[in-house]
Design a protein that fits this description.
Strand content: 15-25%
Largest sheet: 7 strands, mixed
CATH architecture of the largest domain: 3-Layer(aba) Sandwich
Number of helices: 12
Helix content: 40-55%
CATH class of the largest domain: Alpha Beta
Order of helices and strands: HHHHEEHEHHEEEHEHEHEHEEH
């Protein structure tokens, strides 16, 4: 029989420990939890005995976390916060917010500009966007859906392919209108680079080599670590960028960006995917997922 649960230190004192770590005071921790100061002290002592380490340095009128205490406090805050969110969700009848994770670029350039349409269709459904470039565990972090860009062979089995990847050079109309990239025009232009080595097709070196201009130097180059910042800089007239067609289409339609020439290049074997969490979808999550699929199909 697995004895992992039996080997855990007592969990009941964790609330008292987290409150004491937050306030650095047994008195204020006791007030927060409606307990006596001696009860908090006993909880901390029980936890220290179980772990075999001191969690606090106790002074005459001060209380400080030890290194071990600081590590436990950081972890326990997260555990209890997640438990609290789960308990709240389980107690609440009706719909809960639909939580979607996506990279910063996809969130800012594709998802957010379209959200108004979903809100008009389903005003009672609340949506929460967790934007970030870290791949998160949907089940562990209680996230309903993910919009992910990856190689086709890396997509999870339950993922729905939304669209592929096509790239093209873009710039503000004041720069891009009538422009052709040649050995004569390139030295007069500023190129905006995406500083991400894992995506060479989004860099100018790859594009210039493909059109025979690899040895020609532009007037200047500016690097960006976030793709949405790169595209917004291009829309502001700061230079030319390699645009991901599906992400820059709204800006092209609004007249803030313009393709440079007619050349577009499809990136084989990669695409944007909708990934559901590995659990049955709630009705509101299913509605949002279906809307995402419809938006992708309408391009």
């Amino acid at each position: 029989m697995d004895s992992t649960l039996r080997q855990l230190p007592p969990l009941d004192p964790l609330r008292g420990f987290v409150a004491a770590a937050r306030h650095l005071s047994f008195t204020r921790a006791a007030a927060e939890l409606c307990l006596t100061q001696s009860a908090i002290s006993r909880q901390i002592q029980t936890l220290e005995n179980a772990l075999g380490v001191a969690l606090f340095v106790r002074g005459v009128r001060s209380l400080q976390l030890t290194a071990a205490g600081a590590r436990l406090a950081a972890a326990a805050e997260g555990w209890l916060a997640e438990y609290g969110r789960l308990a709240h969700a389980l107690r609440q009848p009706g719909e809960r917010p639909v939580t979607v994770t996506a990279s910063i670029g996809i969130s800012a350039l594709w998802l957010v500009p379209r959200l108004r349409e979903f809100q008009q269709r389903h005003p009672a459904t609340e949506v929460r966007i967790a934007a970030g470039n870290r791949i998160v565990d949907l089940a562990r972090e209680d996230i309903d859906l993910a919009l992910r860009y990856c190689a086709d062979h890396d997509a999870p089995p339950q993922a729905i392919r939304l669209f592929g990847e096509t790239v093209l050079p873009v710039g503000h109309p004041s720069i891009a209108a009538g422009l052709t990239l040649t050995a004569e025009t390139l030295p007069q232009l500023t190129l905006l680079d995406y500083d991400e080595p894992g995506y060479p097709w989004l860099g100018w070196e790859h594009w210039l080599a493909a059109i025979g201009l690899e040895g020609v130097r532009p007037r200047a180059r500016i690097g960006f670590s976030h793709y949405d910042q790169l595209i917004h800089a291009a829309a502001a007239g700061h230079g030319l960028a390699i645009g991901r067609a599906v992400l820059v289409e709204p800006l092209i339609e609004d007249g803030r960006l313009m393709p440079v020439g007619a050349r577009q290049v499809a990136v084989p074997g990669r695409g944007f995917w909708l990934v559901p969490a590995p659990r049955p979808m709630r009705p509101e999550v299913e509605r949002f997922a279906q809307w995402i699929v419809e938006c992708a199909a309408a391009r």
